[in-house]
Write a structure and sequence with these properties.
GO molecular function: acetylpyruvate hydrolase activity; isomerase activity; metal ion binding
Organism: Mesorhizobium mediterraneum
Shape: globular
Strand order of the largest sheet: 4-3-15-8-9-12
Mean pLDDT: 94
Structural class: alpha+beta
Oligomer: single chain
Helix content: 10-25%
Pfam families: FAA_hydrolase
Protein name: 5-carboxymethyl-2-hydroxymuconate isomerase
Number of strands: 18
Low-confidence stretches: none
Radius of gyration: 17 Å
Largest sheet: 6 strands, mixed
InterPro entries: Fumarylacetoacetase-like_C (IPR011234), Fumarylacetoacetase_C_sf (IPR036663)
Number of helices: 6
Order of helices and strands: EEEHEEEEEHEEHHEEHEEHEEEE
């Protein structure tokens, strides 16, 4: 049950949101789902066979989204990795959404990073524990403003890459996704009730690696946009 601001025992935090490119509007964020190992070459580099695994998902927190252009190097880690991803933003949702209707739920797209405390994630994996300590930390999802699908359509192919200090580190094509955007939405909707404001980070191509303070990360997705982030 919701009340007026004065009825809360503490001041509510602001609604996490992402700007919409070319407007003064904001996209309010409900949840952030991330699909794991969704490019075959990345699955292989992480030691897995992409032909034998169903899709799996983990979550970041809505306020992990970060449009500041800076990524503060997090505490408790000495091995933080970049993962360039296409951001998918939903304007509607539901349960058991058919694949053929899934794109009707999409508001737009962006370019994002799933920054990962790889050492903490590795320890959690070794102990059979959840990954959130490695994934869902402050400012761990830098991203661009969203571009509406009404302007760019629904990208299914095109280059996705990341440079670190001008050197190409990650490169792939959206058509290399094992699970395509409509399939992700449909599958997720069988596990959760998807809602307007939900975000999906759609997986990363091969070439993930560590960053240090002072690094400049430049990411690009054809037809979607460009992201620049400085590690501070």
């Amino acid at each position: 049950m919701h009340g007026t601001t004065s009825s809360y025992v503490i001041e509510p935090t602001a609604i996490p949101s992402i700007p919409v490119a070319g407007t003064d509007k904001m996209f309010p964020v409900h949840r952030v789902y991330c699909v794991g190992r969704n490019y075959a070459a990345h699955a292989v580099e992480m030691g897995h066979d992409p032909n034998k695994e169903p899709p799996f998902f983990f979550q970041k927190n809505p306020d992990n989204l970060n449009v500041s252009g800076e990524f503060p190097y997090p505490p408790a880690s000495n091995d933080v990795h970049h993962e360039i991803e296409m951001v998918v933003a939903l304007k509607s949702g539901g349960t058991d959404i058919p694949v053929e209707r899934a794109l009707d739920c999409v508001f737009g797209y962006g370019v994002g990073l799933d920054m990962t405390r790889r050492d903490l994630q590795g320890k959690a994996k070794d102990m059979g524990r959840p990954w959130e300590v490695g994934k869902a930390f402050e400012a761990s999802a830098p991203c661009t403003p969203l571009v509406p699908a009404s302007s760019i359509g629904h990208p299914t192919q095109g280059a996705i890459w990341l440079d670190v200090n001008g050197e190409r580190k990650q490169t792939g094509d959206l058509n290399q996704m094992i699970w395509k955007v409509p399939e992700m939405i449909s599958y997720l909707s069988g596990l959760f009730t998807l809602m307007p404001g939900d975000i999906i980070l759609s997986g990363t191509p091969a070439g993930v690696g560590a960053v240090i303070r002072g690094d400049v990360l430049r990411g690009h997705i054809d037809g979607v946009g460009d992201l620049e982030v400085r590690v501070v």
